[in-house]
Amino acid sequence: MSTSLDFDTEEPLTSTGRPLSNATITVRVIKSFPYRNVKNIIFQNYDLRSKSPQDLLKDCQQRINSEGAFRPFRNVQFDSFKIYTHAHGYKTINLVINFDHDDDWILDMTDNEKKLYQYGIENETEISLFKWDDYVNYKANPEEKW
């Protein structure tokens, strides 16, 4: 009897060593691109098979609104997600956000049916949360102010 697993038990990497229903992901909450105001939220035992980007946004908003460390981030209307890096993948030289892959690493916030794993998100993936207009302005003129 053979069963199909969504994780690797033989020679697992951190990205494939856990099932998609029990992943650890890091959300990089970006308040300001020019000033590099970024704070991480780490979700453990997160179910990538059942959660959509809207669900992830709700979970992030709940943490931002309930944890004191995120008090300065509460005045930003976060509305977008973009994959920053995959486990074992290359990292961008930009410390705030990945400017590459705008066509395939931005999560569609209007599609509630598409789940996180369908965007290629696995265990140990880092995702940026930000305000879309701020990203567009910063990408047009990526000037750091500190």
Detailed description of the structure:
The chain is of the alpha+beta class. It has a single domain, classed as Phosphatidylinositol 3-kinase Catalytic Subunit, Chain A, domain 1 (Ubiquitin-like (UB roll)). The chain is 16% helix and 21% strand. It has 2 helices and 4 strands; from the N terminus they run E-E-H-E-E-H. Strand 1 and strand 2 (37-46) form a beta hairpin. The longest helix has 14 residues, at 53-66. It is globular. It starts with 22 loop residues before the first strand and ends in a 6-residue tail after the last helix. 27% of the residues are buried. InterPro entries: UPF0538 (IPR018794).
Spans where pLDDT lies below 50 across 5 or more residues: none
CA(first)-CA(last) distance = 60 Å
How many helices in DSSP terms? 2
Summing up helix and strand content along with how strands pair, one would put the structural category as alpha+beta
Q: Strand tally, please? A: 4
Q: What is the rounded Rg?
A: 16 Å
